[in-house]
Design a protein that fits this description.
Structural class: alpha/beta
Strand order of the largest sheet: 2-1-3-4-5
Order of helices and strands: HHEHEHEHHHHEE
Strand content: 5-15%
Radius of gyration: 17 Å
Shape: globular
Oligomer: single chain
Number of strands: 5
């Protein structure tokens, strides 16, 4: 069991600062050169796991202005968690000592929109929609925009699922060596709002 090399608060600050640079158009593109490739050859030491939607408009390394070896990224449509995604997150926490897990949703999410509208989903896409439906149903009673409510509810439900479904994550969080947080990326202005 690896111990974190940085604390969750420092990891969160690095993501927040990186997103501020990105949203302001002042990215520095750290850790993206030959020296960094050489430095991380022996192994990886990412400081955060990002469970993000597969949407091509939401690349975590770009929106957080990070580079090679900084983030351990798991992406699925609608940031839906199955056993493989959960195992990937557990690997990063247990074997790489990552102290922070971020569940990153985003505005205008197509997967949540499909679940909200009850669209027929062909093939295995239906599994994605089915996984999001409980959040849509839970959000129906909330005032305000139905899509925004469903997106935020889904993010919170995924955070809760990670805690409930994984003894590894729950144990680390209880011990204070892991923090699990939700966040929403705004496609319109490039800003990440933390939940």
């Amino acid at each position: 069991m690896e111990q974190p090399t940085v604390h969750a608060e420092a990891a969160l600050r690095a993501l927040q600062e990186g997103n501020r640079r990105f949203a302001a158009g002042q990215t520095v593109h750290p850790h993206q050169d030959a020296a960094r490739r050489e430095e991380i050859l022996p192994g990886q030491r990412p400081f955060a796991v990002i469970l993000a939607c597969s949407d091509s408009r939401v690349p975590p390394e770009v929106i957080f202005d990070q580079g090679l070896g900084d983030l351990f990224v798991v992406r699925t449509a609608g940031q839906v968690v199955d056993d493989v995604a959960l195992g990937s997150i557990e690997y990063a926490v247990e074997h790489l000592g990552v102290p922070l897990v971020v569940v990153l949703g985003h505005t205008r999410c197509g997967a949540v929109t499909a679940a909200l509208h009850g669209d027929e989903a062909p093939g295995h896409i239906a599994a994605v929609v089915q996984a999001i439906l409980p959040a849509v149903q839970e959000a129906q009673s909330l005032p305000g925009d139905p899509l925004a409510n469903a997106i935020d509810t889904h993010i919170r439900r995924v955070v809760a699922h990670l805690r409930a479904a994984s003894p590894i994550l729950a144990e680390r969080e209880h011990a204070g060596t892991l923090r699990i947080v939700g966040a929403r990326y705004n496609l319109e202005n490039g800003e990440v709002e933390w939940m």
